[in-house]
């Protein structure tokens, strides 16, 4: 038996954002037709933090993996990150381990890809202006994914930590086909221009007033992950057609959906499968909420492994 070990650099080299968007679309499609096994994530509390176990198996594509995510607040004192994830990909035929991969890079890829899938089906075809709330790892991935599905010409970054916003703006300026990027003076100044609003922050209170959204705007939110956290206000929820990654997860975990008393119109998988329409008019405001699902990890891990095998990435260890 052997296992392939993939570092963060290997994961990033293995899969483009476009390929990740295709993969996550396949996961959502299977999930919404009952072709996925995905138990609720288990939480193990220890003295210092919490460790989550996220298993999923996709029946059609055969992707099978478990992600382990630890959130330990005191880690920075030890020179370690607060959040650390690892993914174990398994063979669905035999249950044997196939690969162990660094999970933070995979999480950014699959979370960005979720936003990319949503923008592909819900943003206007001519959407070119982005308001980007947050300047961290996930915000960066959200923008990369929007760029993979739409011709993005301008980006306004909204983040109270100016140094983080400036760092991301400098980084974006060096990308191939980089959009023009500036730091927004206020949330409102970014929203009046935006065709796509991407929220990937750690805020617990709404980022903007939904009255400032232009007709036709698409909004994606990936930040809030507890009933107490809200990135998106109730006005946006009221004005928008609401689409989620999974109804049960969104109703249980997403403060935006719960506090906004959202009427969920569709799962994104239902739109991919053609059971529900994508964007219905140029004026429609759409909101996609992703809380993050293990099926995204399983399918992205499967695609990363396939590509890594083809490209000879990683280190193969003989286990027995
Ligand atoms: N939905 C998913 O699948 C998924 C996956 C991974 C992470 N997340 C969540 O996404 C969020 C962002 O994660 P990250 O790794 O990028 O974190 P990060 O710490 O790297 O970045 C968060 C950014 O949000 C900014 N921010 C905080 N309050 C803000 C406000 N009011 N307005 C604008 N910006 C604000 C911070 O300054 C920071 O730059 C977290 O809540 C994380 O738990 C979701």
**The number of domains:** 2
- Identify the overall geometry: globular
CATH class of the largest domain: Alpha Beta
Q: List the ligand species.
A: nicotinamide-adenine-dinucleotide
The first-to-last residue Cα distance is: 5 Å
Name the CATH superfamily classification of the largest domain: NAD(P)-binding Rossmann-like Domain
Annotation field: number of helices: 11
Residues in helices, as a percent range: 25-40%
CATH architecture of the largest domain: 3-Layer(aba) Sandwich
Biggest sheet descriptor: 8 strands, mixed
Give a structural overview.
There is one protein chain. The chain has helices at residues 8-14, 17-31, 103-122, 137-149, 162-173, 187-191, 234-239, 247-253, 255-259, 268-272, 294-311, and strands at residues 2-6, 36-37, 42-45, 50-58, 64-71, 83-90, 97-102, 129-133, 154-158, 180-183, 196-199, 218-221, 241-244, 264-267, 286-289, 315-318. The strands form two sheets. Strands 1, 2, 3, 4, 5, 6, 7 and 16 form an eight-stranded mixed sheet that branches. Strands 10-9-8-11-12-15-13-14 form an eight-stranded parallel sheet. With 320 residues, the protein is an alpha/beta fold. α2 (17-31) packs across α11 (294-311). It folds into two domains: 2-106 and 295-318, ornithine cyclodeaminase, domain 1 (2-Layer Sandwich), CATH 3.30.1780.10; 113-293, Rossmann fold, CATH 3.40.50.720. The longest helix is centred in the middle third of the chain and has 20 residues, at 103-122. Bound molecules: nicotinamide-adenine-dinucleotide (NAD).
